[in-house]
Design a protein that fits this description.
The protein has three helices and no strands. It has 93 residues and is mainly alpha-helical. The chain has two domains: 32 residues, no CATH class; 46 residues.
Length: 93
């Protein structure tokens, strides 16, 4: 069975520095080579913020499409209402 250690045993292992030794062996054994980090001392490049511009332009495009749709709907609604009122389609009491 794999039972958890009692607290006094954990304290004993801490005092003997056994857990620190396990931790250092674990991290040394599983060490991986990380890719080199680019030097970013000269600020943010356009490649790093290109996605922001993409989102902005997509938002502007969707806003213009919505504007065109709402303008078309508004013109159609008011023209039908105007024709109905001027040609007597709607009775005024």
């Amino acid at each position: 069975m794999n039972l958890p250690l009692p607290p006094h045993r954990i304290l004993q292992l801490l005092n003997q520095r056994f857990l620190e030794d396990l931790k250092s062996r674990w991290w040394e054994f599983n060490r991986k080579k990380c890719p080199a980090i680019e030097n970013e001392e000269d600020g943010i490049s356009i490649q790093n913020i290109g996605g922001v511009f993409l989102v902005i332009f997509i938002g502007i495009g969707l806003g213009l499409i919505t504007l065109a749709f709402e303008y078309y709907w508004s013109v159609q609604y008011w023209s039908v209402l105007y024709l109905a009122l001027t040609q007597g389609g709607v009775s005024r009491r």
